[in-house]
Amino acid sequence: MINYLTKQNLCFKNLKNLLHHKIGVERVFFKYTKSITQMKKAIITNSVKFEIEQGLLVSLFSLENEPYKKITIAKYKGSATEPSQFFSDLPEFAFVGRSNVGKSSLINSIVNMKKLARTSSTPGRTKMVNYFLINDSFYFVDLPGYGYASGASKSHKNLWSSLIEKYLLESKQLKLVFLLVDIRHKPSELDLLMQKFLYINNIPTKIIATKSDKIAKSKIANYTLNIAKSLSVGIEDIILFSIFNDKGKEEIFKIIDNLLS
Question: What is the fold of 74-260?
Answer without folding.
Answer: Rossmann fold (3.40.50)
